[in-house]
Design brief:
mainly alpha; 294 residues
C-alpha cells in the first residue's frame, strides 16, 4: 500500500512538471517582438583634447617672472588715496589702541614711575600704611607726570599726530617725528651706566655713534632702571629725618623704663608734626619736579 501511494505521487509530480513546461513554451511563443528586451551597444565617452600649443617644447628653457612666489599686500588706511586724512574708522581704531596700552606707556615712558615710588616711600616713612589712600597717591603721581610731560606731549602732538590726522604725513613719517621729543626726554634723564648695560646686552654688530642710533628697545629699559635708582635715592633722603625721630623716641622710652609702650605709637605724632611744619608734600613734589631734565 505504501508503494502504491509513492507511485501515485510520482505520477502527479510528472504531470505538474509537464504542464509547467507547456505553459512556459506557449507564453514565450506568444510574446510580440516589440515587447522583447533589446540591448544596444553604447558608444564610449569622449574627452576634450587639451590645447598644448602654449606649453614649451622639450629642451626649451623656461623663464620665471621676477615677482613669482612673492606675497604682497597693501592696507588701505582710508582717505582719497593721495595722502589724504585717514578715515574715521582708522582714527577710532588708533584711539582704542592707545587707550588699551595707555597704562603701560604711562609707566614705562614717562616720569610716573619715579613719582609714585617716592610718594609710597614717604607714606611708609611716616609710619602710616593706608593714609593717604592708594587712589590719592596714584592720582597725584599721574597729574604730576602730566605736568612734567606736558611740553613733551604737546610737541609730539604738534609734529606727529596733528599732521597725520590732517593728511600731511604718512603713518611712518608721523611716528618718527612724534617719537623724537619723547626720545629727547628719555635721553635727558637716562643714566650712562644703565644705557651702557642695555647697549652691551643688545646683539648689535655696530656700536651706536649717537643718540639717533640707539633703539627704543634698549632706551626704554635703561630709562626705567634709571627711574628706579633715582626714586630709591630720593626715598633714602626722605627716610633719614624720620629714622632720627624713631631713634630719639626709642632712647627716651628706654631711659624712662617704658618697655611695654611701642615706640612707633609715640613717634608717629612727632613725625606728622615735623612733616607738616616743613610742608613735606610740597617739598617732595618740588624735589621731584626739579629732578627731571627737559
Amino acid at each position: 500500500m505504501i508503494s502504491g501511494i509513492s507511485a501515485r505521487r510520482r505520477a502527479h509530480l510528472f504531470l505538474i512538471l509537464a504542464a509547467a513546461f507547456l505553459a512556459t513554451t506557449v507564453v514565450l511563443t506568444a510574446t510580440p517582438a516589440s515587447a522583447q528586451i533589446q540591448i544596444e551597444p553604447v558608444d564610449p565617452p569622449t574627452f576634450p583634447v587639451p590645447d598644448t600649443s602654449d606649453l614649451p617644447t622639450p629642451g626649451t628653457p623656461t623663464t620665471v617672472p621676477e615677482d613669482a612666489g612673492v606675497l604682497s599686500f597693501s592696507v588701505d588706511l582710508g582717505g582719497d588715496g593721495e595722502g589724504g586724512p585717514p578715515s574715521e574708522s582708522i582714527v577710532l581704531i588708533i584711539g582704542l589702541t592707545l587707550l588699551s596700552v595707555a597704562p603701560s606707556l604711562v609707566v614705562m615712558l614717562t616720569s610716573f614711575t619715579r613719582i609714585v615710588i617716592v610718594f609710597s616711600l614717604v607714606r611708609n616713612a611716616l609710619g602710616v600704611q593706608s593714609i593717604p589712600p592708594n587712589q590719592v597717591v596714584v592720582g597725584l603721581s599721574l597729574f604730576l607726570s602730566l605736568f612734567i610731560m606736558g611740553p613733551t606731549l604737546s610737541e609730539m602732538n604738534e609734529v606727529g599726530l596733528q599732521p597725520y590726522l590732517d593728511g600731511e604725513k604718512e603713518q611712518s613719517e608721523a611716528y618718527e617725528d612724534a617719537i623724537e621729543p619723547l626720545r629727547a626726554f628719555m635721553f635727558a634723564n637716562v643714566g650712562d651706566d644703565e644705557l651702557e648695560l642695555m647697549l652691551a646686552a643688545e646683539d648689535n654688530t655696530v656700536a651706536p655713534t649717537g643718540p639717533e642710533d640707539v633703539s627704543m628697545t634698549a632706551l626704554i629699559p635703561a630709562f626705567i632702571l634709571t627711574e628706579l635708582k633715582t626714586a630709591f635715592i630720593i626715598g633714602f633722603v626722605v627716610f633719614m629725618p624720620f629714622l632720627v625721630i624713631d631713634l630719639v623716641v626709642s632712647s627716651v622710652l628706654m631711659s624712662l623704663g617704658m618697655m611695654m609702650l611701642p615706640p612707633v605709637f609715640v613717634s608717629l605724632p612727632f613725625k606728622i608734626l615735623l612733616f607738616v611744619m616743613v610742608n613735606g608734600w610740597v617739598l617732595v613734589a618740588e624735589t621731584l619736579i626739579t629732578s627731571f631734565k627737559t
